[in-house]
Design a protein that fits this description.
alpha/beta, Rossmann fold, Immunoglobulin-like, 3 domains, five-stranded mixed beta sheet, about 25% helix, about 20% strand, disordered N terminus, disordered C terminus
C-alpha cells in the first residue's frame, strides 16, 4: 500500500469521527492527486450515523465500452442489439470479476456485507467510517459515494370515479376529471399523439420488448397480463425468470403480492400505471389504454414504496442488460439475448440528496451502447428554468420527456431546461408528451387518472415501440430513432429559459410527440447522393462529405469515392446542409455550408453537387 495514501486515509478517518458542527457542513476532501475522493454526502453520513451505512465503492479501473465494441468490429451503425449486448456482457463481467477479486477478498475477510456490480465496476458495501477509510487507502478504489434512499416526486393521482376537490401538492396539482370521460374510446393522449392512426396502418408494437423500471407492475392486471413476456396465454401459466427482477427482494412486500420476489409485484401503483400507458389492452368495458398494445413487457422493481437508491437503479439496468433469475448470479447467469429493446424510467435521482451523477451516467451510456433506448421523465420541478436537474433525465444519452395537457400547453409542474446542474447548459427536455389527467391501469381499484412527467415518458416509449414495429431495421439504432421522434414532433415555439431560437427550446424540446408522423417519416426514407468537385470540375476523391440536419444538428459522414461521390441512406425528410472535410479530419469538425438540400416525404432519391473552391481546400491531415 502506498504509505502516503494510507496517511491521508488515516487523517480522513479522524475527520469523519469528529462531532458534526460547522466544520462538518462540508467534509474536507482528500487531495485528488494522492487519495480517492469521498462524496460530501457520504462523509456526513459516516460522521453522524449510529451504525453501518450503505455506500458504493467505485473502482479505479473502468472498462472502455466504446473501445470494447470497436475491438469487436461493432460501430455506431451496427444496430444488432443482441450482438452488442453479448459483447458488452462478456467484457464487463470478465473485467469486473478480475479487477474486483482482491477487493472482494478484503471485504470477505472483514465480514462486510457487499453486492458486486459490473455495469459500473463498483461494489455496494455496508460499513462504517473505519471501513470507508480503509477502502480509501486502497489503490483499486477510485471513489466512495453515497447510496441513500431517494424519495420520489412521482406524480399526482386521483380515483377515476367522482370529482373530489382539486389538491395542490406544490409540485403538481390533481385535476378534477369528469366521470363522463369513462365513456371515451381511449385516453386522450393516444388520440392526441395519433397512435390510433398508426394502429390503422397495422403497426401496434408487435415484436418489440419494453422494460419498466419502477415501483413494480401488477402483472395479473387484465390490461397488462396478455402482453407480459413471461405469460403463456394458452396454458394460463407464467415463467417469471428472465422476465422480472426485484431489486428489493422480500423487504416489506404487500400482502396482496406473492411472497416470492421472483413474482412481479407493485407496492405502490405507479409502475402499473406507466406500463398501462405503454401497452395496456382494452378489457371488458374499459378502453384500450396503451400506445403500443401488441408490444410485450418485462420489468424490475427499483423502488420500495416510492423510495429508490442508486444501487437499486443500477441493479435494474444490469438486469435489463442481461436478464437472470432472481436467485441467480448476474455475473454468470445473464442472458443478453433476453434483453428488452426500450426502457421506461419514470423516476429521478437527485444529486443534492446524495445521488452520484457520474456513475449513473456511465450506467445509461452503457445501456445505450448495448442498443437499448433509454427514455426518462424530465421531472416535476417546474415551472422554474433549469429544473431538469436530476439524473437520469439530465444526460445526453437519455431521451427526456416533458408533459403537456390536452390543450397542448406545457404542464406547470413539467421541468424545464437548460441543464445547469452539471454545467453543460444542455437543452432538455428532448420532447413533450401527454402527462396531465392520464387514464391508465392501477393496482387496487383497476384504473386511475394520474399526472406528471412520469405519465408523459410512457407515451414516448409506446411511440418508439410503434416506430420499431413499423421499421424493424431501427431496433438498436438509437441515434436514428431519436432523430425520427424529434424531427416529426409538432414544433412549439417558446423563448423562455434562455432560448436563442424558438425551436427547439427548453420547455417543449423539439415539440409535441406525433407517433404517426414519426412512423410515416421512417417508412419514407430517401437516398441522398452528393458529388463533390473542385472549381476546376475535377472530382474530390477521398474527402469526407458531411450532411447535417439543419434542425437537429445530426450529422451523416461518408468518404467520397474516386468519382467524388458519397451516398447517404436512409435520410429522412428535412433540410440539410452539405460540407466537406479533408481525409483524416475529425468528422465532428466545423464545416462551411457549400449546399443546402430539402428532402420531402415523397422523395425517394435526391442528388446534389457541391463545389469546393480550390483556394479554400484543406490539405489532408498528416499524423505527426
Amino acid at each position: 500500500m502506498n504509505r502516503r495514501r494510507a496517511l491521508v486515509a488515516g487523517l480522513l478517518l479522524a475527520l469523519l469521527l469528529l462531532i458534526p458542527g460547522a466544520a462538518m457542513a462540508q467534509a474536507p476532501e482528500p487531495d485528488a492527486a494522492t487519495a480517492p475522493r469521498i462524496s460530501d454526502y457520504l462523509a456526513r453520513q459516516l460522521a453522524t450515523a449510529a451504525g453501518p451505512v450503505s455506500f458504493l465503492a467505485i473502482l479505479t479501473d473502468q472498462l472502455d465500452v466504446d473501445a470494447t465494441l470497436a475491438a469487436a468490429g461493432i460501430d455506431d451503425g451496427d444496430g444488432d442489439p443482441v450482438r452488442r449486448g453479448q459483447v458488452l456482457y462478456a467484457a464487463l463481467t470478465a473485467h469486473a470479476a478480475a479487477t474486483q477479486a482482491d477487493l472482494r477478498a478484503f471485504l470477505d475477510a472483514r465480514g462486510a456485507p457487499y453486492r458486486a456490480y459490473y455495469i459500473v465496476n463498483m461494489i455496494e458495501v455496508e460499513g462504517d467510517a473505519q471501513l470507508a477509510a480503509d477502502l480509501l487507502a486502497r489503490d483499486d478504489v477510485g471513489r466512495l459515494v453515497a447510496n441513500p434512499t431517494i424519495p420520489q416526486y412521482l406524480f399526482s393521482v386521483k380515483r377515476f370515479s367522482g370529482a373530489p376537490p382539486a389538491l395542490d401538492y406544490g409540485w403538481a396539482k390533481v385535476m378534477n376529471v369528469p366521470a363522463a370521460e369513462a365513456t371515451l374510446a381511449m385516453p386522450w393522449g393516444l388520440g392526441y399523439t395519433n397512435a390510433d392512426e398508426v394502429w390503422d396502418l397495422g403497426y401496434t408494437g408487435q415484436g418489440v420488448v419494453i422494460a419498466s423500471q419502477d415501483t413494480g407492475v401488477a402483472w395479473e392486471h387484465p390490461a397488462l397480463q396478455p402482453r407480459y413476456r413471461g405469460y403463456d396465454a394458452g396454458s394460463g401459466s407464467a415463467d417469471h425468470a428472465y422476465n422480472w427482477f426485484d431489486a428489493w427482494g422480500t423487504l416489506d412486500r404487500p400482502t396482496r403480492c406473492d411472497p416470492d420476489p421472483q413474482v412481479p409485484c407493485d407496492d405502490f401503483g405507479h409502475g402499473t400505471h406507466t406500463v398501462g400507458t405503454i401497452l395496456g389492452n382494452a378489457q371488458g368495458t374499459e378502453p384500450r389504454i396503451g400506445m403500443a398494445p401488441d408490444a410485450s413487457w418485462m420489468g424490475c422493481r427499483n423502488m420500495h414504496k416510492g423510495l429508490g437508491t442508486p444501487g437499486a437503479y443500477a441493479a435494474c439496468f444490469e438486469f435489463f442488460l442481461a436478464p437472470y433469475p432472481q436467485t441467480g448470479d448476474p455475473f454468470t447467469d445473464g442472458k443478453p439475448e433476453k434483453a428488452p429493446n426500450i426502457i421506461n424510467n419514470s423516476w429521478g435521482c437527485p444529486p443534492d440528496e446524495g445521488c452520484d451523477a457520474d456513475s449513473l451516467q456511465q450506467v445509461v451510456e452503457t445501456a445505450r451502447a448495448a442498443g437499448q433506448f433509454v427514455i426518462a421523465s424530465a421531472g416535476n420541478h417546474g415551472p422554474s428554468c433549469a429544473s431538469v436537474q436530476d439524473p437520469i433525465a439530465i444526460y445526453d444519452a437519455v431521451f427526456s420527456v416533458g408533459a403537456h395537457d390536452s390543450g397542448g400547453s406545457l404542464a406547470g409542474f413539467s421541468s424545464r431546461g437548460p441543464v445547469a446542474v452539471d454545467g453543460s447548459g444542455r437543452l432538455k427536455p428532448d420532447i413533450a408528451a401527454p402527462g396531465v389527467s392520464v387514464y391508465s391501469a392501477w393496482v387496487e381499484d383497476g384504473y386511475r387518472v394520474s399526472q406528471g412527467t412520469s405519465m408523459a415518458s410512457p407515451h414516448v416509449v409506446g411511440a418508439a415501440a410503434l416506430l420499431w414495429s413499423a421499421q424493424p431495421d431501427l431496433v438498436g439504432r438509437i441515434d436514428r430513432s431519436e432523430q425520427l421522434l424529434i424531427k416529426s414532433a409538432t414544433p412549439v415555439a417558446a423563448t423562455a429559459c434562455g432560448e436563442t431560437s424558438p425551436v427547439p427550446n427548453n420547455l417543449f424540446g423539439y415539440g409535441r410527440l406525433d407517433a404517426l408522423q414519426a412512423v410515416e417519416m421512417a417508412l419514407n426514407p430517401a437516398t441522398l447522393t452528393v458529388t463533390a468537385k473542385g472549381n476546376d470540375g475535377l472530382p474530390l476523391s477521398g474527402v469526407q462529405v458531411i450532411v447535417q440536419d439543419k434542425l437537429t444538428g445530426y450529422r451523416y459522414a461518408a468518404t467520397a469515392n474516386e468519382a467524388g461521390v458519397a451516398v447517404f441512406t436512409p435520410v429522412y425528410a428535412g433540410i440539410y446542409v452539405v460540407g466537406i472535410l479533408p481525409a483524416g479530419a475529425d468528422p465532428d469538425s466545423p464545416v462551411d455550408e457549400l449546399a443546402s438540400v430539402m428532402i420531402e416525404l415523397t422523395d425517394e432519391s435526391v442528388d446534389v453537387e457541391v463545389v469546393l473552391p480550390l483556394l479554400r481546400f484543406y490539405l489532408p491531415v498528416v499524423a505527426r
